Amino acid sequence: MNIAGEGPGRSAPNSGKMLAGFLLSGFLLALLGAILPAWGYHRDPPEFVMVGNYFLSLALGIILATQLAEKIRARRGLSFLLVAGCALSCAALLFLAGTPLPPAGSDWLRMGGLLALGLGAGMTNVALFHGISPRYQRDAAGTVVIGGVWYGLGCLAATLLVAGTFYAYTVPSILILMAVVPGLFAGWYARAPIESAPGSHRSFREVMADFRSPGAVLFALLLFFQFGNEWSIAGWLPIFLIRRVGLSQSAALEVLALYWLFLLIGRLVAIAVMPRVRHMRLLMGSGVAAIFGCLILFSSTSGFSAGSGAFFVGAGFASIFPLVAEAIGRRFPYYHPGFFNGIFTFAQVGGLVAPATLGYMAEYWGVGVVLGIPLIGTVMVMLLLVLIWLESKVTGR
Predict the structure, then answer these.
(1) C-alpha to C-alpha distance for 245 and 254, rounded to whole angstroms
(2) How high is the pLDDT of residue 70?
(3) Domains of the chain, start order
(4) pLDDT for 322
(5) Could you report the per-residue pLDDT of 217-256, keeping only the tens digit for each?
(6) In the predicted structure, residue 200 carries a pLDDT above the cut 90
(7) Percentage helix, strand, coil, to 5, in the chain?
(8) Alpha-carbon distance 222 to 182, whole Å?
């Protein structure tokens, strides 16, 4: 579906730059899972409740950003919002770099820094979704999938940066290096101001009416649980491997990097085979692989078995997002950036609430419980996929 004034082959201005911004989004959100071992939360006595509070602070910042960002965009424009989100993220990382390490530093100061980081990441996401709306209207599924690939690259880059500098630099130095990334993005976007995209062909109320359907609710719940699965592993895998398997901090971070790499490569492979394989069969196979990978991780005794588990989990999770993105693109081919950002925010919040919940559970039942939510969540995703398939058969959509 083309917007007014654009031919089918014409590229929307700055759309590639806006999609590349999802690399920054993934980079910022993957930071916490990678930096926790550097902050010492793998040691005794465990302070898993505080780790849960950290993830909750990040989630709260993203939720608050959805309200604040729309007001900023309405008053100052899309370009200002985008630069402000990147600059706030940079400042939050510098603040965290200046906060003394545990146990000397205040946990509440780190929670405040993570809240600010969530605000910056959330504001950036709102701006990015508004910026990609012309491209989404022409190719909904392709736009979401490409954005997801950039997002995965950002997650991988953040983990590799921490793993590669773990023994070479101090923790404050690592955070300062990480702060350079949103700072560079802020400068990049400030040099070429982004204009607000033309409005959607349909009103927000019309779009909302469609999202009251059972199918839309099922899609939202599926993304909520799937992001929870992915980020439960991403947030807790290093601590799990250090405490349960006995890996070193750098080795555990390398396994986390492998998880992101397998997830990213798996998504690219899934995109290539989607036209040739029945989607329900691919989804069911993915669910079984993810459950098998969780079981391998739970019983791991070495770095090799942990890497094998990361492979199956990453490969199992990989195909779900591209297939759901394609289904959403077919089902809702029009676009309202504010609402679509709300769906993505709902999924991201699920991705942070899940590891937060794991922190509270691990405090009482031990670190082994951190694979429980991904196992349960994967089963929930498979059930929701069956329900979506049945709903589509009944409605004919």
Answers:
(1) 14
(2) 80
(3) 15-395 (1.20.1250.20)
(4) 77
(5) 777 788 888 888 888 899 999 999 998 888 989 999 999 9
(6) no
(7) 80, 0, 20
(8) 30
Please give the pLDDT value at position 83.
Answer: 94
Name the amino acid, one letter, at 260. Answer: W
- Which residues, at least 6 apart from 107, have a Cβ–Cβ distance to it below 8 Å? 50, 53
Q: Which residues contact 114 (CB under 8 A, 6 or more apart)?
A: 32, 54, 57, 58, 61, 92, 96
Half-sphere exposure of 81 (CA within 13 A, CB side): 30
Residue of 88, 26, 28 whose CA lies nearest to 58: 28
CB 121 within 8 A of CB 22: no
Does residue 310 surpass a pLDDT of 90?
yes
Residue matched to tokens 């400042």? 91
Of 202, 152, 158, 196, residue with least CA distance to 177: 158
Phi-psi region for residue 3, left (φ > 0), alpha (ψ -120 to 50) or beta?
A: beta
Q: How confident is the model at residue 336 (pLDDT cuts 50, 70, 90)?
A: low
Least confident of 16-30, 119-133, 202-216: 202-216
CA distance 143 to 141: 5
Phi-psi region of 301 (alpha: psi -120 to 50; beta: other; left: phi over 0): alpha
